[in-house]
Amino acid sequence: MTTHNVTLVTMTCQVNLLVTEARICSVSELPPWYPGSETKPAPMPLLRVQGFINTRDVDDGSDLLEDPVTARRWLTEAELLNDTAELTDAQAQLARDVREAIRSLIEDDPDSRVGALRDLATAHRARLCVADDGTIGLENARHDGLGDGLFELLLIIYRAQQDGSWSRLKVCGNPDCRWAFFDRSRNQQGSWCNMAVCGNRLKNRELRARRR
Ligand SMILES: [Zn+2]
Questions:
Q1: Residues forming beta bridges with residue 58, ordered by sequence position
Q2: Quick one: which of 2, 60, 122, 193 could link to 179 by a disulfide (CB 3.0–4.6 Å)?
């Protein structure tokens, strides 16, 4: 536990809640840090996890976390890193490892890469906070280094797993794409980031393979 008193913790929580509400209202417009365009955005704050996964565009090979300079720019813009913090090669690698571990979670293939998330969870702490209406929540105890920002993403995933929205965040079924999208369909059977692009492309490919 930290040494913060209850008033301070409550105030921190209020600020967080206000920020969250403001962001929910503006979901129709993608925030500037979101990589590229998006036809299937998750609601905030899960959009932050979706955007983080999509910093790597598997299809065109680009990566917004590929080196410390590029990664620092994106991470600070996405408020996952303090704008005064520096970023080393090892930290940029950590960010990429965490990103691919999160992608593997929603690809129904949580493999050994989950270790990166476990390490993150072990090294950081969340604390309880109490909102004005008595709702008790979990919040990040620190907001300094890269690890704190990445831990913030874990907290978002934790809350999404609790409220059920996590199962709607998926990876496109096209293996050449693997873009993360939010499936808003009623039966949650969506498979493609974009039916016109990936769905048809893959269906045509399967059709061609069958004709051979
Ligand atoms: Zn796709």
A1: none
A2: 193
